[in-house]
Each structure stands twice: as C-alpha cells, then as structure tokens.
Specification:
- Helix 10 packs across helix 11.
- Strand 1, helix 1 and strand 2 form a beta-alpha-beta unit.
- Strands 1, 2, 3, 4, 5, 6, 7, 8, 9 and 10 form a 10-stranded mixed sheet that branches.
- The protein is globular and about 65 Å long.
- It has 2 domains: about 210 residues, Spore Coat Polysaccharide Biosynthesis Protein SpsA, Chain A; about 130 residues, no CATH class.
- The chain has 13 helices and 10 strands.
- Helices cover about 45% and strands about 15% of the residues.
- The chain is an alpha/beta fold.
- GO terms for molecular function: hexosyltransferase activity.
- This is Glycosyltransferase.
- Keywords: Transferase.
C-alpha cells in the first residue's frame, strides 16, 4: 500500500528515546583522497541529534584509518566494515544499521553545507512528508574550484508535491544524496538497493520506488551538497559497466509489473529510461557505443510494441532521436560518429523531416525552451 490515503503527521525531531533525528550513510571504498573533506562537512552539521554511519566496503588504502580517526574524535560517528561486495550491498547494510527518524546519504567524495540535514529534516517533518529533497551543485576542484547549480524547484515543481501528479520529479537527476527519507517509510515498502557486484546507477531504481510510493515530498529551493565531477570519466572505458544501467531498469520494470497503477507508471519509466540510456550512450567511449545502442534500440522496440511509451512525454528532439535509434540504429550510430550529435541546422532539420515527418518537424520549430 502506498502513502496515499493519509500522509503521516511527521516525526518530531528525535521523538523516540535513543533515536537520532537522522542517520547519514557514507559508503566508502578507497577514497582516502577526499574522505576527510566529506567527514569534516558532517562534523560541522548544525543538527546535533545525528548519527553518521561510515560503511567501509573492504578498502585497501587509508580509508579505514581515516574512518577510525573520526570515530574517535566524534561520538556521532560509527564504522561498519564489510568485505568488498559493491555499492548496493554497502547501502543496504547502512539502511539495516540506521536508527534515525530520517535517513540521509553523503557520498564519500562529496561534501555538504553545515545546515544540510537540519534544513532537510525540518522540511520533511513540517510537511509530514516521506521525503525532502533539495537541489545540489556539480563541483569541480580542478584546475580551480567551480560549481554549477542544479535546482529541483522550477516549472511546476516546488513546495510539497505528490509525485503521481508530477511525473517530472521522476525525471530529475536521481541525486539520492540531496534528500532525506523517512526510515520507516523505506522499511514499510522494502525500498532497497540492487546488490549486483560491480554495478553502477543503483540510485535509479531506489529513487523510482521512493517516488512511486510517496504521497508527499517536500522540495527545497536551496542547494547544499557539492557533487564532485573530477572523476566522472572513470567508468566510460569499462566494458563490464556498459549495461549496468539496463540492470537497474530491469529492476524498475519488475517493480512496475507488480503494481496496480502500472499503466500510469510505464510511460513515466520509459521517459526516464530513454533519458538514462541516451546519456549512457553518449558518455561511453566510442568503441563501446555501438553494442549498447543495439540493446537500446531493441528494448525500445519492445516497449513501443507493448504501448508502454508515450511519445508526448518526450520533447521533440528526443522523439526524433528515439525514432531514429529504433528505426535504424546503425545509421544513428554512423550519424553520431560523424557529427558528435551537433549537426548544422540544415542537417538537423533534414533528420527531423526524415524520422519525424512534417508534424514533428513543425513541433520542433515551434518549441521554445
């Protein structure tokens, strides 16, 4: 049962004896370069009633020693050690260990503002919400520090929302670490992470399940976390990670199949899937793209045949990309190699006319934003 009939009244800060307001999970693996900055930002939090759970996934560098030092310095910190088994298993272990009214997450190479968890927990509590979510900053530390704001508030999104009335929330970058979640809500719906060893993108299915079950989500027009981009290229050359995003969507699709509101969720999921697959295709090294595109095309041919894709949920440029990819993936790949996705205006218009017909071409010409 989803949180639909009556939203919970919201917990008072630290309402239960021995229960901190928030448990912050910090999954760690060989991150000695950045970990101190991350943990320093948590020590500086303005919310005193907090526990920080550092989950060491079998690190082989100095990560474990850094965690031990912070646990000795600050009684709110505790360490959980486990053999290396991947991000999903680490996060699920952290969820089992958490005692807080709310659960927050901070990646071990990121850092956050002092008021982060005080503001997020207060927003969730005051709204009686199952989750509270803020924007965040993309952060580069080299060659010189710079930030780029990503706001979750804008358009029709803001205040307290019901995700079933705002599918665009599903399409916002998952960014699980810019939110807090009511712990009992996660437990009640068994919302956990996919534990495939070596996988990536485990935040996709977790976030989708949160939004699918929640009735009230508080959105903050603020940003607290700095999400580090310096190492973003680390997996683009890894053949073993090419199809990890597909595993996450297999999990999402299995979840949808068992729900009474599947007809509403299918097109929402397919828009998210297109955005995620398209992003993955372009981020891969060129030698890995063609194999991924073949699977991309086949999965969407099946989805369209099953009437799970609502083309109107895609902007015009995405519609033509989907039609091109499913219609002739080899031609799309050749076009992508030739143009890097940035053709001249005449070439772009010709592609719209070929794959979308005059109607889609006109919608693209009329589209603004």
């Amino acid at each position: 049962m989803d949180e639909r009939v009556e939203a919970p009244a919201g917990a008072r800060m630290g309402e239960s004896a021995g229960e901190p307001t928030v448990s912050v999970l910090v999954p760690c693996y060989n991150v000695e370069r950045y970990l101190e900055q991350c943990l320093d930002s948590l020590r500086a939090q303005t919310i005193a009633d907090m526990e920080v759970i550092c989950i060491d996934d079998g690190s082989t560098d100095g990560t474990g020693a850094i965690i031990d030092r912070y646990c000795a310095l600050d009684g709110r910190f505790r360490a959980v050690r486990k053999p290396n088994s991947g991000y999903g298993a680490s996060m699920n272990r952290g969820l089992r260990e958490a005692r807080g009214t709310y659960v927050g997450i901070l990646e071990s190479d990121d850092f956050c503002a002092p008021q982060t968890f005080e503001r997020l927990c207060a927003a969730a509590r005051d709204a009686g919400a199952q989750a509270a979510k803020a924007g965040f900053f993309l952060h580069w530390s080299e060659p010189e520090p710079r930030d780029q704001l990503k706001s979750v508030v804008g358009g029709t999104l803001g205040g307290v929302v019901d995700p079933r009335e705002h599918p665009e929330l599903f399409w916002f970058m998952p960014s699980i670490w810019s939110a807090v979640y009511e712990r009992r809500f996660l437990d009640r719906h068994d919302i956990r992470f996919l534990e495939t060893p070596g996988a990536s993108y485990q935040d996709l299915s977790f976030t989708f399940k949160v939004w699918a079950h929640a009735a009230r989500v508080a959105l903050l027009d603020e940003a607290f976390v700095r999400y580090r981009q310096d190492n973003e290229a680390s997996s683009i050359h890894a053949p073993g990670k090419v199809f990890c995003v597909c595993d996450e969507f297999a999990q999402i699709e299995e979840f949808i199949e068992g729900r009474p509101d599947r007809d509403r969720l299918w097109p929402v999921a397919m828009r998210l899937k297109f955005d995620s697959y398209f992003w993955n295709y372009w981020r891969l090294s060129p030698d890995l793209r063609e194999g991924f595109l073949a699977r991309f095309a086949e999965e969407f041919r099946i989805a369209r045949a099953a009437h799970r894709v609502d083309m109107s949920m895609l902007p015009p440029w995405s519609q033509v990309d989907l039609l091109h990819i499913t219609g002739d993936p080899a031609d799309y790949h050749a076009w992508a190699l030739r143009t890097q996705g940035r053709p001249g205006s005449l070439a772009a218009l010709a592609r719209y006319a070929r794959w979308g017909g005059p109607g889609l071409l006109l919608r693209r010409l009329l589209h603004r934003g």
